[in-house]
Amino acid sequence: MVFTVKTAPKIVEYAAKHKLTFDENMCKGCDLCVWACPKDILKLDLERVNGKGYNPVVCFDIDGCTACGICARICPDSVIKVERDV
Amino acid sequence: MSKIVYEKSKGLSDVQLSYCPGCTHGIIHKLIAESLVELDLLDRTIAISPVGCSVMAYDFFNCDGIQASHGRAPAVACGLKRTNPDKIVFTYQGDGDLAAIGTAEIIHAAHRGDNVTVIFVNNAIYGMTGGQMAPTTLIDMKTSTSPLGRNEAMMGKPLLVSELLAQIPSATYIERVASHDVPNLNKAKRAIKKAFEYQAAGKGFSMVEILGTCPIGWNMTPADAMGFVKDTMMPYFPLGVYKDEGGNA
Ligand SMILES: Cc1ncc(C[n+]2csc(CCOP(=O)(O)OP(=O)(O)O)c2C)c(N)n1
Ligand code: SF4
Ligand code: SF4
Ligand code: SF4
After folding, report:
1. A41, B23, B137, B178: which could join B133 in a potential S-S bond, CB 3.0 to 4.6 Å?
2. Do A35 and B26 touch (CB under 8 A)?
3. B212: closest CA among B16, B30, B28, B52?
4. In sequence order, which residues have a C-beta less than 8 Å from that of residue A66 and are 6 or more positions away?
5. Helices B103-112 and B73-83, axial angle in degrees (round to 10)
6. How far apart are CA B70 and CA B85, in angstroms?
7. Quick one: pLDDT at residue B249?
């Protein structure tokens, strides 16, 4: 039996050379990806909340992304997909 | 052309995890799911969830699952494996579950050398019930039942589970890893994969102890909790392989 309520997905994409895709309503605003990103290009959007009531993460400088994948690996809630241009 | 560097593992269901923001239970679930997919074992795996915050873990993996009474997950796993030897059976247990109420079950599963895998998440506290002291709580660590900090004279020193189980003759593979940064997650995943490979090859009992966080119970931000694992937990709970008698899987 599944006890958790599912929120309709909201997919947010950022694309430059590389691409980040956030499954935004799964984000709990924990800040771990922000803390872990070596390029410091992620932040929590304190102006709004997602479907679960958390401040979701946003990318404010996708040009700086190296597609290292650290944010996605550390995210406990599998919010982030990282695609590298090859 | 683009290459996917990371996306959500197919080994996880689409149910939102019930864990608090930034809790390492979610990160450790990902490592298990990725390992089972990469080893092509997911279809024949059964997860045994404990009592603790991960009580509903059976909902989160894309495999079958059973929820055991508090501390009894190893006993359920051993019975299931003995009657279904073609299945891959693992328990997922916290330190309250495994190292307190379930001490007898874990020791005797290892003692019998049952061919199951135990994923032991040591976050030094009882998370689910409100942050009470566990056998693994560090000296001077404040919890809701040790508000002045764990006092060694009264409560002893934290239990070292990997060291303890490595003494058991029939245990095959015991390793302690951590989950606070990507290099350590890579090592943790290698250990989890090895444990599942050993089980698939019939090599006997394996346990991977993973140092994790409880940001809520520790009263810290998730990022500070990651620092606490590195700076405060790791010196007392040294990482490493405590026993490996599996040879090449
Ligand atoms: C027989 C029994 N005794 C006590 C409890 C209360 N209880 C629920 S979870 C828990 C401890 C869980 O701690 P841990 O295993 O460390 O997991 P965490 O929540 O930290 O992930 C306890 C004592 C219970 N559910 N059943
Ligand atoms: S992929 Fe690397 S550089 Fe890009 S946002 Fe994530 S952590 Fe930062
Ligand atoms: S690590 Fe995941 S859940 Fe936490 S803020 Fe980043 S995207 Fe959101
Ligand atoms: S109480 Fe602690 S262990 Fe449980 S989900 Fe919350 S942070 Fe994780």
Report:
1. B137
2. no
3. B28
4. A18, A38, A39
5. 30
6. 24
7. 46
- In the numeric block, the tokens 């404040």 are attached to B142
Q: Does the predicted model carry a pTM greater than 0.90? A: yes
Q: Tell me: the pLDDT tens digits for B129-177?
A: 999 999 999 999 999 999 999 999 999 999 999 999 999 999 999 999 9
Q: Under an 8 A CB cutoff, do A19 and B2 touch?
A: yes
Q: Where do the structural domains in chain B lie, given as residue ranges?
A: 25-133+159-244
| Pocket residue to mutate for ligand 4, from B16, B17, B51, B53, most atoms within 8 A of Cβ | B53
Residue A42 one-letter amino acid: L
Tens of pLDDT, residue by residue over A58-73, are 999 999 999 999 999 9
Predicted ipTM of the assembly: 0.96
d(CA A31, CA A41): 12
CA dihedral B198, B159, B99, B41 (to 10 degrees): -20
Distance CA B94, CA B179 (A): 14
A24 CA: distance to closest CA in chain B (Å) = 12
Find tokens 């709004």 and name the residue.
Answer: A48
Q: What 3-state class would DSSP assign to B24? A: helix
Specify the pLDDT at position A2.
56
Order of strands, edge to edge, in the sheet holding B45-49?
B64-67, B45-49, B88-94, B117-122, B206-211, B173-178, B240-244
| Residue (of B38, B65, B43) closest to B54 by Cα position | B65
**CA A78 to each of CA A44, A65, B95, B109: distance values in angstroms, whole numbers, following the listed order:** 16, 18, 24, 33
Domain B25-133+159-244 adopts which CATH fold?
Answer: Rossmann fold (3.40.50)
**CA B112 – CA B20 distance, rounded (Å):** 36
User: B62-113 pLDDT, tens per residue?
Assistant: 999 999 999 999 999 999 999 999 999 999 999 999 999 999 999 999 999 9
Q: Say how far apart CA B171 and CA B163 lie, in whole Å.
A: 12
